[in-house]
Amino acid sequence: QVALVESAGGAVQAGGSLTLSCVASGVNFRDHVLGWFRQAPGKEREFVAAVSRGGGTYYADSVEGRFTVSRDNAKSMVYLQMNSLHSEDTAVYYCAAQFAITPPLTRDEYTYWGQGTQVTISS
Q: pLDDT tens for residues 16-65?
């Protein structure tokens, strides 16, 4: 059985930083691309960032320059480092995995999903 488990999120002051992590099991981690998505109340789940098998990264315009996605194949983990957070970043964040070389950028192209973790930005 495939499982992806995100670390706990949290509440962060505007301008602050937070790093999320996600550990995968039940898959050949190295053969999968990894993505991060987020969903605010009443909104569709949207793409945030992704990393290829070789470490190439992709970002949504809304987080480019503020977020960094990376992977550690030895630990079967993917990370999302979030800096300069603001209220628009408040959402439930999900990690996802897909057997692919180039990361898909839409949620319907990912097969495996974590349960999500809440990130709340406050002032």
A: 999 999 999 988 999 999 999 999 999 999 999 999 999 999 999 999 99
- DSSP 8-state symbol, 8: P
Measured on CA atoms in the order 25, 77, 115, 62, is the torsion positive or negative? negative
**CA-to-CA distance for 22 and 37, rounded, in angstroms?**
12
Length of the chain: 123
> DSSP letters of 27-83?
S-GGGEEEEEEEE-TTS--EEEEEE-TTS-EEE-TTTTTTEEEEEEGGGTEEEEEE-
For 10, the 3-state DSSP assignment is strand
